[in-house]
Amino acid sequence: xxxxxxxxxxxxxxxxxxxxxxxxxxxxxxxxxxxxxxxxxxxxxxxxxxxxxxxxxxxxxxxxxxxxxxxxxxxxxxxxxxxxxxxxxxxxxxxxxxxxxxxxxxxxxxxxxxxxxxxxxxxxxxxxxxxxxxxxxxxxxxxxxxxxxxxxxxxxxxxxxxxxxxxxxxxxxxxxxxxxxxxxxxxxxxxxxxxxxxxxxxxxxxxxxxxxxxxxxxxxxxxxxxxxxxxxxxxxxxxxxxxxxxxxxxxxxxxxxxxxxxxxxxxxxxxxxxxxxxxxxxxxxxxxxxxxxxxxxxxxxxxxxxxxxxxxxxxxxxxxxxxxxxxxxxxxxxxxxxxx
Length: 340
Prior knowledge:
Blueprint: H1 17-22, E1 25-27, E2 34-36, E3 38-41, H2 54-66, E4 71-73, H3 82-90, E5 100-105, H4 120-134, E6 139-144, H5 153-170, E7 173-180, H6 183-192, E8 199-203, H7 217-222, E9 226-230, H8 251-266, H9 271-282, E10 287-291, H10 295-307, H11 311-324
Parallel strand pairs: 3-4, 3-10, 4-5, 5-6, 6-7, 7-8, 8-9, 9-10
Antiparallel strand pairs: 1-2
Helix pairs in contact: 2-3, 3-4, 4-5, 8-11, 9-10
Pfam family, one: Aldo_ket_red
Protein name: L-galactose dehydrogenase-like
GO molecular function, one term: L-galactose dehydrogenase activity
């Protein structure tokens, strides 16, 4: 879609038309949804990523949508329902036509024994709980969350996916998605599934320290999947504030990223802005999902999208890339569970 065209989510009188016309919209696979290049992530609407302010979250969501961001992502797992509940409050007063809303199922509680449940019964209950928290009649994409943690992939294929398909037939969701960290598992699920899958969400896989997604793009695109590229700041690693204590990266990765952050702070440049620029320039995926819980974060991401980096930031960017070369290519933390 031309960046000058108005998307189907445009609502006269609500949107800032000039801002919407600036936004780039891209078809999300074969869904028929034309989504903004930036997707609004709401994992920060809970304690997972430190402090947050509900009123600021509300103002951020309203401003983001008015400026043309039309895809929002949440999950029951984020704050164990807190993110969905707060997002539901934030969406009050916004026309439903103005945005696409994605949530997830199958990952829930902090207790490891109760964290994952891929059963049909729990999945059916999950969508009802999510819709109640979100104050919505439906979501656009219902995603099976972190499929690699199922006791076996057959359970996802034979029970969870058919249940999500059933949920779509009831009108509580429109499209089916899967998410995960190991790209090989996402690929296997798509290959083996008898239920049509519409989207894949992968995170921390197209960043300044890990470009593993490149190796799977052709496959996902050949299946006409919408590709959501999440956590391009590596869940806080590539920001000036650094990651939360629970981050699963090894100490060497954290130390090198901390060196990059310290250099950025010395130069008065935000590392997260450079990381977002890198992923935009790299070009993997249809929409880049960025956690945004303040208008400050919103506007610096929009600034990078529209204006790139200024000369000073370009200099710092080049130096940061040199610092990060201390790490081996495609640095990852597969098979390390989070404690949050």
